[in-house]
Design brief:
The chain is α/β, with parallel strands linked by helices. It folds into two domains: about 210 residues, Alpha-Beta Complex (Spore Coat Polysaccharide Biosynthesis Protein SpsA, Chain A); about 90 residues, no CATH class. It has twelve helices and 13 strands. The strands form two sheets. Strands 1, 2, 3, 4, 5, 6, 7, 10, 12 and 13 form a ten-stranded mixed beta sheet that branches. A three-stranded antiparallel beta sheet has the order 9-8-11. Helix 8 packs across helix 10, helix 9 runs parallel beside helix 11 and helix 10 packs antiparallel against helix 11. The termini are far apart.
């Protein structure tokens, strides 16, 4: 059962997309098809894709990465592929990545499995995209990353409970009993919610340690020159230090900031759907809302917009009445 489709979701990153497609075509084990979901690109991506005779093209308006993965996985499943290999346009599997994933599929029990390669950013492993869903404590994000001990263990493949869409290799049986990602999540936590549903439906997710996929964010530099520079909010600092972080974080009400708001809403909803509305979650949300609101009132700009957006985040997360347009103002 090696009828395999790669699904790539893209939006306005033609340079990266070309590199991604080249890496897929260069796999030591060939793919049956490459499906590209074009989320309304305006940078020449559509014209380039239409000129390719070996790519299956899906074009839709930009409804976010979540809707792209939903559409791509749904179409691949409808076409009867045994495996669906999903990724963004900024992911580049190593030449033997697919071969290693298929070898790993033979060593695990059953065919209700998801396999995930190791993600490398620059010269280091990115552990945040692979891990374990943790409902024992209220935390953002929901997953604990695979730690060094797990990476260094002899267990390969290693069973985990969360994998991001960067290189997620999904069997047809998993899609049959778990459905598709939620398109209304737009961006962030869509892969977390999907991973939870996958494991709840008694499927297994494995990290394949000798399969590698490279990942770039915020850059079009060559892979070897890229290193991640994502900043995290301080955890054990004073309220004023956290407030200073939030002030910098929300200094510009741009697309990236609004995507973070979408992610927080999706986290709230996912927590409620899959773990219920606990007292611990209530306490966390009150503290989180208060901290965010403090910045709104202290900010020198965007005060009204920020207030509206923050309220939409919590309202939509708590009620499940999603309206992305009211957050992506």
């Amino acid at each position: 059962m090696n009828n395999i489709a790669a699904v790539v979701v893209t939006y306005n990153r033609l340079t990266l997309l070309k590199e991604c497609i080249a890496s897929l075509k260069g796999q030591s084990h060939g793919l049956s098809s490459i499906i590209v979901v074009n989320n309304g690109s305006t940078d020449g991506t559509l014209e380039w894709l239409e000129a390719q005779n070996d790519i299956l093209l899906i074009t839709q308006e930009n409804l976010g990465g979540a809707a792209g993965f939903y559409r791509g996985i749904k179409d691949a499943y409808a076409k009867g592929y045994d495996w669906v290999w999903v990724m963004d346009d900024d992911a580049f599997p190593q030449e033997d990545c697919l071969e290693k994933l298929l070898l790993a599929s033979q060593s695990v029990k059953g065919d209700k499995v998801v396999l995930a390669p190791v993600i490398v950013e620059g010269n280091k492993i990115d552990s945040l995209h692979r891990g374990f869903i943790n409902f024992k404590k209220v935390q953002y994000p929901l997953q604990d990353p695979v730690d060094e001990a797990n990476f260094n263990s002899n267990e390969n493949p290693l069973e985990i409970s969360f994998a991001s869409f960067i290189g997620m290799f999904i069997s047809k049986k998993v899609i049959e009993n778990s459905g598709y990602p939620r398109p209304d999540y737009f961006i962030f936590h869509d892969d977390v919610e999907y991973s939870i549903r996958i494991t709840k439906a008694e499927n297994s997710i494995y990290l394949v340690k000798d399969a590698v996929i490279y990942h770039k964010v915020k850059s079009e530099l060559a892979i070897k020159n890229y290193t991640s520079d994502q900043k995290k909010e301080p955890k054990n600092n004073t309220f004023s230090e956290k407030l200073r972080y939030r002030k910098n974080k929300y200094a510009e009400l741009n697309k990236g900031t609004l995507f973070k708001f979408i992610g927080k809403r999706n986290w709230i909803r996912t927590s409620i759907i899959h773990n219920g509305f606990s007292f611990g979650l209530l306490v966390y949300l009150i503290k989180d809302y208060s901290a965010n609101l403090s910045y709104v009132f202290l900010s020198k700009s965007h005060k009204l917009k920020l207030f509206k957006v923050f309220n939409q985040v919590y309202y939509q997360g708590l009620t499940g009445k999603f309206n992305n347009k009211k957050i992506l103002i």
